[in-house]
Design goal:
Length: 266
Amino acid sequence: MSGWNFWHNFVFLLNGLVFLLIGLDLPEVVAGMREGGMSLSTATWYGLLISAVLILVRLACSYGAVMTTLFMRRFIKVADPNYYGLHVPFVLGWSGMRGVVSLAAALSIPMMTEAGVPFPERSMIIYITFVVILVTLLLQGLTLPILIERMKLPAFNDYLPEQETESIIRKGLADVSLRYLRENEVCELISDSQHLQSMVSHWMTQLEEEGQTPLYDASNELYSNILDQQRLYLYHLNKEHANINEDIVNRFIQRIDLEQERLKYE
C-alpha cells in the first residue's frame, strides 16, 4: 500500500514538473512563434477557438454516448440501463480538462524535418496547446464543483457498505482457498509450513463465523498458488457484481501482489 502511495505522489510531482518546465520554456516558444510571423494575439485567439471547439465536441460526444446507450438498451443488455436526465452527460462533457498528455503530444513534434529545416509552426502548436490546457483547467476545472453542486445530480453510489463488502471478500477468499486445498489434495505440504497452517486455521475460522462448513479436509497447495486463486476470485467478483466497490477489491489485490513479492525473497 505504501508503494502505491509513493507512485501516486511521484506521478503528481512529475505532472507539476512538466508544467513548470513548459512555463520556463514559454518565452522561447513565443519568440520562435514571432520569428515565424505569428503574433501573440492571433495565436491566443486560435487557442481560445480550439478550446471552444474541443469543449463543444466533448459535450456532443457525451450526449451522443448517452443517447446511443438509451437506444441500444432496446436490443442488447447494457451496463446501466437507467436514465439519469440531461445533467449527467453535461457534467461528463464538462469534465474533459486537457493536461500533460496533450502537452507531451505537442512537445513530441520534432524540431527539424528530414530535410533539415525547422518544423513549420512548431512553436505555434506548442503555444496553442498551452492555451487550451490553461483554458480548460481554469474554466472547466474551477467551475466544475459549482456545476455539480447546482445541478443536484442523483446519487450513483449503489455499492454495498464498505464493512459488508470486506466481509464478503474475506469470506470468499477463505472459501476459494480452502476449496482449492481440498480439490488438489496436497496435505503433506501443510505440515511443512507453520505459516500455511496458521492461514488455513484463519480461513476455517472465518467460514465458521459466517455459519458455513469449512471445505478443508487436510489438503493444501503452495501458498503462492493459493494467492493466485484468490486473485482470480477477486477478478471474477469485480466483473460479475456491480454493487461491489472496485476500489476495495483493488486493495485486496494489492495485498496479494505484495504477499507474492514477499514470498520471492524468502
